[in-house]
């Protein structure tokens, strides 16, 4: 790099560097999206060759639209067999409430507002993610972590009518506040985060592990009574917020299992209607996709591989608290999630691991990994977003 460019780079504020990365990544991703929209045929959500905002608010974006405009049903819909059917209670209110508020203020319709909200939160997340990574990594590696986040295979969701962009913003903020030990500010952050995407219980576990570690190491890292009570209160509050939405569904519908029954409706096309048995769904999915015992063995291998990854030197460099979050969220998914077409999207909260991927500094590695992730974006758009009648859907 010429000396003049190095000088300009050093004089550029960190936030400007991050926003440049974010903007360039949005140009690349938007180009891919528009290329696919140009050949999109008529489908259940749009006509042929839809414009950007219509194409970006398909699939579950329609559910968020329903929530923003009509709210939640007081009577749960039933299938012909008498089971609880798919309904809006599976979609938390944080994102549609923000979009609805802007719809009222601006007079605009759902689609452009929903996309605007996601894009704005994605920029904010990129900025926060840099600050988060820069606590453990040097500035160059932290910035490259942002690059990977912005070009990741599912980064198109950061500008679609989905809640992920807003959720990742508040999750990143919560993790940053946790590392800063600013426990008081975690209360409002967790409240919004847990009502945007299911995460309160996972964060409660991570917070609990943080409290235990601080208590055990209190001799070399003082953990006074006031700070201790505040941290414990945050862990309890996060657990309460993790249960708040199922309780709200119970109060409104009168059904104690309204939320879990609604979530189970999405796996019914695969394995039929079954009870929610913690830690069983991954094995049920493995058998459904691969048969027995192959499916069970694959799930066990994935668990072992993930555990080994968590103890690699690169991941350990991310610090204990981020590893607590990654492990807690992974355990939460293992306990309640049935792997299917939205698996990749539900893995997005593991994004702090991108810091470990960003550590190698060789230019060929960094160029290669960026090109690979951009190609994976195109693959995800083709497989999980575009509608051609043969989709592995919904995304």
UniProtKB/TrEMBL annotation:
- Show the GO MF annotations: alpha-1,6-mannosyltransferase activity; GPI mannosyltransferase activity
GO cellular component labels: mannosyltransferase complex; membrane
* Compartment annotation: Endoplasmic reticulum membrane
Q: Does the keyword Endoplasmic reticulum apply?
A: yes
> InterPro entries attached here?
PIG-V/Gpi18
A GO biological process this protein is involved in? GPI anchor biosynthetic process
Superkingdom, natural source: Bacteria
The UniProt transmembrane annotation reads: 14-37, 110-130, 136-154, 199-217, 229-252, 287-312, 324-344, 364-387
Q: What's the protein's topology in the membrane?
A: Multi-pass membrane protein
List the keywords (alphabetical). Endoplasmic reticulum, Glycosyltransferase, GPI-anchor biosynthesis, Membrane, Transferase, Transmembrane, Transmembrane helix
- Pathway listed for it? Glycolipid biosynthesis; glycosylphosphatidylinositol-anchor biosynthesis
What's this protein's name?
Glycosyltransferase RgtA/B/C/D-like domain-containing protein
């Amino acid at each position: 790099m010429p000396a003049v460019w190095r000088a300009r780079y050093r004089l550029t504020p960190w936030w400007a560097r991050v926003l440049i990365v974010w903007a360039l990544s949005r140009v690349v991703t938007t180009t891919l999206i528009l290329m696919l929209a140009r050949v999109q045929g008529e489908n259940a959500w749009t006509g042929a060759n839809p414009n950007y905002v219509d194409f970006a608010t398909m699939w579950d974006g329609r559910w968020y639209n329903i929530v923003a405009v009509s709210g939640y049903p007081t009577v749960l819909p039933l299938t012909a067999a008498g089971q609880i059917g798919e309904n809006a209670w599976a979609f938390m209110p944080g994102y549609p409430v923000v979009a609805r508020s802007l719809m009222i203020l601006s007079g605009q319709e759902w689609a452009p507002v929903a996309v605007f909200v996601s894009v704005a939160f994605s920029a904010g997340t990129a900025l926060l993610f840099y600050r988060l990574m820069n606590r453990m990594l040097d500035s160059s590696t932290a910035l490259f972590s942002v690059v990977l986040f912005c070009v990741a295979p599912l980064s198109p969701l950061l500008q679609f009518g989905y809640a992920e962009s807003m959720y990742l913003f508040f999750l990143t903020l919560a993790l940053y506040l946790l590392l800063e030990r600013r426990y008081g500010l975690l209360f409002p952050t967790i409240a919004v985060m847990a009502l945007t995407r299911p995460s309160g219980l996972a964060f409660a576990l991570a917070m609990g592990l943080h409290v235990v570690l601080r208590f055990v190491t209190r001799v070399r890292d003082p953990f006074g009574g006031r700070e201790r009570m505040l941290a414990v209160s945050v862990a309890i509050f996060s657990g309460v917020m993790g249960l708040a939405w199922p309780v709200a569904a119970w109060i409104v519908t009168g059904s104690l299992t309204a939320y879990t029954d609604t979530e189970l409706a999405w796996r019914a096309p695969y394995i039929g209607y079954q009870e929610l048995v913690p830690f069983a769904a991954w094995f049920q999915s493995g058998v459904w996709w691969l048969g027995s015992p192959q499916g069970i063995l694959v799930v066990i291998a994935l668990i072992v591989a993930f555990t080994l990854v968590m103890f690699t030197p690169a991941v350990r460099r991310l610090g204990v608290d981020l590893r607590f979050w990654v492990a807690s969220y992974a355990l939460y998914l293992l306990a309640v999630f049935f792997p299917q077409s939205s698996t990749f999207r539900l893995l997005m909260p593991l994004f702090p691991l991108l810091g470990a991927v960003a550590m190698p500094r060789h230019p060929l590695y960094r160029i290669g990994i960026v090109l690979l992730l951009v190609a994976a974006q195109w693959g995800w758009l083709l497989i999980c977003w575009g509608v051609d009648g043969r989709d592995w859907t919904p995304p």
